[in-house]
Amino acid sequence: MPVLEPNPRALRAGTKRRAAPDRVPDLQSRGTPKHLREELVALLGPDKVLSTVSDLVKYASDASPYRFVPQVVVVAEDVDDVSAVLSYAHGKGREVVFRAAGTSLNGQAQGEDILVDVRRHWAGVEVLDGGARARIRPGTTVVRANAALAPYGRVLGPDPASAIACTLGGVVANNASGMTAGTTRDSYRTLASLTFVLPSGTLVDTADPAADEELARAEPRLCAGLLAVKAEIEADEELTARIRAKHTLKNTNGYRLDAFLDGATPAEILRGLMVGSQGTFGFISEVVFDTVPLDRMVSTALLFLPSLPAAAAAVPGFTEAGARAVELMDGNTLRASVRVPGVPADWAELPRETTALLVEFRAPDEAALTAYEEAAARVVAGLELVAPVPSVADACNAFTRDAGTIAGYWKARRAFVTAVGGSRPSGTTLITEDFAVPPARLAEACAELLDLQARHGFDAAVAGHAAHGNLHFLLAFDAADPADVERYASFMDDFCKLTVERFDGSLKGEHATGRNIAPFLELEWGPKATELMWRTKEIIDPDGVLAPRVVLDRDPQAHLRGLKTIPTVEPIADPCIECGFCEPTCPSHDLTTSPRQRIVLRREMMRQADGAPVETSLLESYGYDAVDTCAGDATCALACPVGIDTGALMKGFRHARHSAREERIAALAARNFRAVETSARLAVAAAERIGDRFLESATGLARRAVRPDLVPEWLPEIPGAAARRLPRTHRPAAVAVYYPACVNRIFGDPAGHPGPSLPEAVVALSARAGRPVWIPEDVAGTCCATIWHSKGYARGNEVMANRIVAAAWGWTAGGTLPLVVDASSCTLGIAREVVPYLTDDNRELHAALTVVDSLVWAADELLPRLDVRHRVASAVVHPTCSMRHLGDEDRLTALAGACAEEVVVPLDAGCCAFAGDRGMLHPELTASATAREAAEVTARPFDAHLSANRMCEIGMERATGRPYRSALLELERATRP
């Protein structure tokens, strides 16, 4: 064991806790039972079997109010793995549940036996027929698929609010539709074909002309059973009419019995049945969608009305006018959405009754959009719009084509579940319900829903796809309180009866049956149709291997089993509803844990009694799995609709693990950073002479002896030392102060780059554009403080944060000149991240500063004044996570566009996780984080590989084997006389 290994108990909660009733029991502290683990390892190999208690807990939660701990997790890499697991389950009498993104709201992604991860190795999009179709693997997010289709002017029909995180396998398996899909653009209507593995292991490709022939040979009993059910349904005119009528509304409750009417052969029937089957009929390994036009011309309005019934009554007018989307948000939703960045703060003061409609028209051309806007204006003229707060009066209640405004409206709408969930009382569980009624009766249904909520003591938030009569509402209750659970149960009984008996509606419009509506399936469909669903399940999965109790459950109390308690954790993470929106952007997601899983694990610790075996086991693995391998880039906060920065939580945990001695040493390094900086530059220079092989060996030994998180690993991609002196500049003529970041004062040029250095290039470019800059003589010994901030060294962070702000204030003449910083992470550090650690006096000085990223300086101030003389044919760019926070990614592409004929932003571009030196402390983190982007970059040659942060450039060079460098170096070359 390394001599400075941190004590896991440093992360134990300081409060005394009693064991919660739904805690993971002590017997599971060792993880997967030995015989199960050994058998699956022998079958699949050790890398595909996750078996520690930490593994099991982090997969036990999804976006639903349920929690079931699996016995083992299998990370399947291909169809052969899936077939092997299914064969094993049949032979051993076990159960299997497939899980991709875990964004399901009704517990479909949870199992109590074998859980199979089908996200990690299952991403990929192939655009077909000029964008008319797309072949997509099931672990691909909707956003990623649409990004591949966008250049063709096409998009997928389904557009769920969780598109940033949900994957196409889950979208099809739940028939999730979203804002505009309705019943005509959902998966059932736009899926051209799919490939799937039946519970028996048989692989079916419905696009194969021989599919039925091969299916009949492999599964004669199944084929005969499906055709028998088809004949029975078609012979019953009343049942046929009922099935057709039920699917005129959005309806994902139960199985798609209309598949028996729409399909003529067993393969065609299965194509329809797999849609909305929720993982109970097989594993969908590939789908081919017929895409729909993107219609880039858009006009949108956010209209405020005095009440929910009034808003609902306005919906038909917009639908008849041709609106693509009419979304409803009630007062509770609007007020809660102030947690979403960009939403006006005064929405918190909106009256409870106020309701908004988000109405959008899309068209292929100007004439069509203008006609829509004229029709919409006639509808608006007949409405009594309200403006209860200033921001509504100033910016809403009118149609706009401004892309930024429209994006803000949709951001607020898509954040419905997470924003409202994030504002729920601490310790309560969130229930998301989803139902549909005939659109003409929407206003009546809204009134009845409000009355029902009041009778049961709930003040739910309501939103939904009003154009399709599809509403969602959220309830918060304490799952640890039996009386509150009973209140919820009573509400559900009355709600389901109201929806079915009063409105003949759908108990699930788009979220699929799941565990919380399974007991009410027969209430909606009646005994005859329900029994046909049970027969269909028995025909396809006679041994009941796949996802039992997810769709069909005869227990009338099944929806009350496994309800998830939400223990209170650290305030920064407490609002998390475990939606999973953060996961696709997280650099460590495929290596160790995601932000959601870090919080899930923390909550399980809080369920355990002090010193319980499960708590001890979780703490032992949490250090590496959660704390050490967090890049701390805060992109999770950008993806999270309520801005939870799990990276900040991990930095806090790093601080908690530091000894007093470590904190003193870090603070000493900050106070004497000039000497540290000089020593680091000399060490890098010496390393050039010593050679990579020796340094790799020496640092490897030191890491094993001391601690990997303290000693960086030497990487061959690390460049040589920077010049000892910075370029000479003159203050009197300067229009800006140029601050070369410490990383650019220590590390020199990329390998093979003949010069100039980055500081020389910035000075030369600025002079060339007639905007000269000045480098202060005393920049040495200063830093943006990110070194200490990212590692959780509180005192060192305070020392350097205050030093750089005081120095910058002096350099810029009290903020008179802008401060240009040549590394995006350092710009972010000085502009924002230092603020909480400043003294009151220095906070005032900081407010006077204008901190400008070098990308912004070059794109906005220099490029318009420069002549581009030498362009390359192609450039690929790597936008850093700091650029995302600063909002200046477009400047990187603008600079690249000036230097190259073709600019490519990889569709899989994300955080490289090099994170200062974290990529040297844990190289496996950068390797995992960059795998998909690197594959995209290395698939073709580029003339230039550009970014704007030296350490990120090192990380990308290591990932791709390609020489990345600053876009400003390329701009200097392109504009050189």
- Count of separate DSSP helical elements: 42
Largest sheet: 6 strands, antiparallel
Question: How much helix is in the residues?
Answer: 40-55%
Low-confidence stretches: none
Please state the structural category: alpha/beta
Average the pLDDT over all residues and give the rounded result: 94
Give the strand content: 5-15%
Structure characterization notes:
By secondary structure, the chain is an alpha/beta fold. Helix content is 44%, strand content 12%. It contains 42 helices and 25 strands. The strands form six sheets. The chain has a six-stranded antiparallel β-sheet with strand order 12-14-13-16-17-15, sandwiched between helices. A five-stranded antiparallel β-sheet has the order 5-6-10-8-9. It has a four-stranded mixed β-sheet with strand order 1-2-4-3. Helix 8 packs antiparallel against helix 21 (521-540) and helix 22 packs antiparallel against helix 23 (613-628). The protein starts with 33 loop residues before the first helix and ends with a helix.
Topology overview:
Elements: H1 34-44, E1 49-50, H2 53-58, E2 72-75, H3 79-92, E3 96-99, E4 114-117, E5 125-128, E6 133-136, H4 142-149, E7 154-155, H5 168-174, H6 187-190, E8 191-197, E9 203-205, H7 211-218, H8 220-234, H9 237-246, H10 259-262, H11 266-274, E10 283-290, E11 292-293, E12 297-305, H12 308-320, E13 325-329, H13 331-336, E14 355-363, H14 366-381, H15 390-395, H16 403-414, H17 416-422, E15 429-436, H18 442-455, E16 461-465, E17 470-477, H19 482-503, H20 514-517, H21 521-540, H22 595-607, H23 613-628, H24 635-639, H25 646-657, H26 660-671, H27 673-690, H28 692-705, E18 736-739, H29 742-746, H30 758-768, E19 773-774, H31 786-791, H32 794-811, E20 819-821, H33 824-833, H34 840-847, E21 851-853, H35 854-862, E22 872-877, H36 881-886, H37 889-899, E23 900-904, H38 918-921, H39 923-929, H40 931-937, E24 944-947, H41 950-960, E25 964-966, H42 967-974
Parallel strand pairs: 2-4, 3-4, 18-19, 18-20, 20-21, 22-23, 22-24, 24-25
Antiparallel strand pairs: 1-2, 5-6, 6-10, 7-11, 8-9, 8-10, 12-14, 13-14, 13-16, 15-17, 16-17
